[in-house]
TrEMBL record:
It comes from the Bacteria. This is Ribosomal silencing factor RsfS. InterPro entries: Iojap/RsfS/C7orf30, NT_sf. It comes from Brachybacterium kimchii. Interacts with ribosomal protein uL14 (rplN). SUPFAM superfamilies: Nucleotidyltransferase (SSF81301). The gene is rsfS. Pfam families: RsfS (PF02410). It is found in: Cytoplasm.
Amino acid sequence: MSASPESLDLARAAAHAAADKLAEEIIGLDVSEQVVITDVFVVCSGSSERQVSAIVGGIEGDLIKEHRRKPLRREGERDDRWVLLDYGDVVVHVQHAEDRAFYALERLWRDAPVVDLQVEGAGA
């Protein structure tokens, strides 16, 4: 079983919102086979805490406006180094570039298929 079409649509919307805020290395991972609580991880990075915050704000704003979806949970806003937005079927990780290199989520979830987010320049 793979991610639902609704999950893929929401992941693509989050990726596009992140790209609008100049997020780097945007990637989607279909974790529906490995994790029972979500379908897709969207991972992206910013070069500073300010940019991480702007990316998070852009994603939240676009998903509320276009999909009427608010995150169920938000984690990591205090430091703006790694902010997690949990939408249930999609979890968005916005990381500072240094933290992303250190934690290497793509390596941790390397068995998960990459999702085509339909964002120019997106991918591993």
